[in-house]
Each structure stands twice: as structure tokens, then as C-alpha cells.
Amino acid sequence: MTTETDTDVQAALLIIGDEILSGRTKDANLSYLAVWLNEVGIQLSEVRVVPDIEEEIAAAVNALRSKFDYLFTTGGIGPTHDDITVDSVAAAFGVPVVVHPEAYRRMAEYYGEENFTEARKRMTRVPEGGELIDNPVSIAPGIRIENVFIMAGVPKIMQSMLEGIRAHLRTGRKVWAQSLTVHAAESKIAEGLGKIQEEHPGTSIGSYPFYGQGYGANIVIRSADKDAIDAAMGAVMNLCDAMGFDMDHPTAID
Amino acid sequence: MTTETDTDVQAALLIIGDEILSGRTKDANLSYLAVWLNEVGIQLSEVRVVPDIEEEIAAAVNALRSKFDYLFTTGGIGPTHDDITVDSVAAAFGVPVVVHPEAYRRMAEYYGEENFTEARKRMTRVPEGGELIDNPVSIAPGIRIENVFIMAGVPKIMQSMLEGIRAHLRTGRKVWAQSLTVHAAESKIAEGLGKIQEEHPGTSIGSYPFYGQGYGANIVIRSADKDAIDAAMGAVMNLCDAMGFDMDHPTAID
After folding, report:
1. Paired residues of B149 in beta bridges
2. Contacts of A194 in chain B (CB under 8 A)
């Protein structure tokens, strides 16, 4: 349950994605971005996956950019006909698509005149007002427009783009987490766990059951305040101890 | 690009999900559900991940259940305080939460009087009007209310619930797919690929670049019409052949 441990800077991720929605390709950017953002003090607060349809992308962009401090999009910025993210974001902002001179210069220099094809020139287009995000891997830049960051979908490129924008982000507090594996049905500790949550309102306590080799629950305690996690974890361990349940050592607070 | 190959039955998935948004746990249900739905002739058309906050869940439920034929939710139906999906869906529908007598009977029988704790009784609660979805793995049922299917988050349980609802779903056409790996920069085939897309409007042609051991692009052609895929794939292979690019054998149409 998310409680008042919510920090004050929140982001959303929009995955542009027929290939993800088909189930054939598994998204690899969500968890990387979530962890990266939390390290710089920003909470990933909503994710959407939408198909490669301009109106759907534009509607999601407008819903998410107005609701959160930042919106990251991944996918659809390549040279092929199905890469419609730039056009869709431009439609969301109600601005035209224009060639960015610096993007053009960088790509012309990198590819040389002969290899700077029409398709590659497509990757110099930005929604009017967009600024470039460096792409150390494959040159073709990402784009920032207001609070929207248009990123590549290829994980290696997306990750390299993040490093370049870190300094430009307004950041809040990191949310720390600590987890404890309890080897008992979560229903047996549910009542006690609910009371501990009430008594530790500065934390968010989640219980995630697992089945497979044995069964049990991973108890995850989150807070921007490490001492609050420590106190709540102590209470959870006392509860399990009193009820005679086996536990692993809790993880480090990280 | 999604074109007129869209079939007529569409579903959305709502992942309820502090643990997914934190990046600590990777969702395993999206791709399974997408592939399963397509096999029965339903297209997964949008996915959202929202935090464990009742108003956020309820708002997403209402947005998605009105937009799509079906909505599946995963997560948040266990016995602990952070399991708020039933209450949130009830709020979305504007109905009270009630104990479902058959759910109560099943769980009382399974656990016996002594082990049928208050926490487990929480799992007999449904939004008023909800019907049960069988859970062959761990008894506690999922819930159907109108076009919304409330499923467990644990993949093994979610998957077992799907089998029980298959017969109740209105189904459309399966979208077939075939892919071809081309060992060339996608920008080099972009122009030709765009023309082939225009000439084959009954298909949806996607190009997904990869980097790592070599580089290239996976060309994925989708359609409910296998012959249309066949024709478009022939055109793509001719294009690559004419340009002298190495290709792997295309996959089977599946």
C-alpha cells in the first residue's frame, strides 16, 4: 500500500509497443528505468503500453505528461515506417515536426554524405521545440520536449541516453527497501502485518506470496526513511518469531 | 504500425503493482496473457501498471473496461492489508463489497474451521454481482464482474484461472505472425519496407533493430490472413535479396 512515504517527484513510462503487446518480446526497460529513477530520487508511478497508433500514443502522452513530473517514452524512434513516436508526440503537443539542425549535423558527420540516407534523415526530426538527448551508442539522438523524454527502445541505447539527462532532472528522495522471506502462508501473518502497517505509517509494507520450492511470502518494507524501515522490520521479525515461523535473514536496506 | 488487420475483440491488462513499479520484481503475466489471448482470438491492446492506491486502480479500471471488450487485472487479491483490488474494483463499479457464499463454502471446506482465519475470509469478498473464477492451484477464487476479470498476480495461479474462463470469452480472429532476421542496418531497408507496407495494407509490418553479436533487424509481419503474410514476406525477402543482404530463414507462420 502506498502511504505518505510517497516522495515528491514522480515519473511515468510509456512503452510504444505492438511487439510488447503481442507477447513476443518482453520489455526490458521498465525495471531498469524504475531502479535508475529511484537511485536519483524519482518514483516511477505509472506505466502504460500502447500500440503503434498515433492517436493512442498522443492520448497517453497527454494523460501522463499532465499527471506526472516527467514522462519517459521508449520505442518507435528508428528509421522505418512503423517508427511514429516523434509524429505522435508532436501531435500530442500540437506542434509540427521539424528537422533539428544539430541532429542533422551529427548524423551527416557520422554517416558521411553517401550513407546519410532518407531513412536516416528521418531520425533528425523532432517535435518543434524539442532538444536533443545524446546517444553515445548509435548517434541518432533522443528528444526532450518540456517534461517528456523520448528514448530509444533498444535497452542498451535507452540506458546510455539516461546518463546524459541525469543532471537535468529535478530529483526528490530515494525510497529505500528491505525485504524478508518468511516461510509461512501469508494469511497466517496477515493480521499482525496489517497492525504493523498501521503502527508504522511512514512505511509501505507489501506482502508477496511465492509458490514453488516450498511456499511463503516476501515482506518488502519501503520508506524514504531508513530508520522507519528498521523499526517496522524489527516489528515484523518479532511477529514471525512469536508465531514460530522460519525466516531468512532480511536483505540489506537498499 | 497497426492497420486494418486489427481484429474485433480487444482486451486490456491492468497490473496492480507497487512491486512492479519499484523495478524489484519483473512482471511475468503480460507476455503469457498476450500469447494466450491471441490463441483464443483476442488482441491485447493496452497495458497499464498502477500503484497500490484505490483511486488509481479504480480510475484505470473504469478507463479500460469502457474502452475494451475485456479487462484483466492481476495482483492484489491475497489476504494481507496491501491487497486492495477487490475494494478498488467495487469502487470503480460503485457497488459494495460482499462475501460470496460459494467462495466462503469452498474455502471453509478446504481449510477446515480451525485454519479458516479472518485473513483467509478476506479472500471470499467480491464486488457485489461478481461471479467466481476457479483457482485449481490454491482455492481462493478470482472474480468476474461484467467484462472485468480479477486474477491472481502469482503467474502459476493466474495461468490456471485462464483455463477456466476460456469458454466464457467472445473470441475473434487470431493474428498470425512471421519474422525474418536481416543482417543489415534497418535504415538501409527502411524505404523499401515502407513501400511494401503500403502495398500490403492487410498486414502490419514491424522492424525491430538489434545490437550485440552483430547488428540487424527482425522484421515481423502480422495479419489475421496467413496468405497476406506470405505475400508480404515474399516481397521483403525479394527486397533484401536484391540489395544483397544476408537473411536467416523466416520463422514459421505462428
Report:
1. B72, B144
2. 80-81
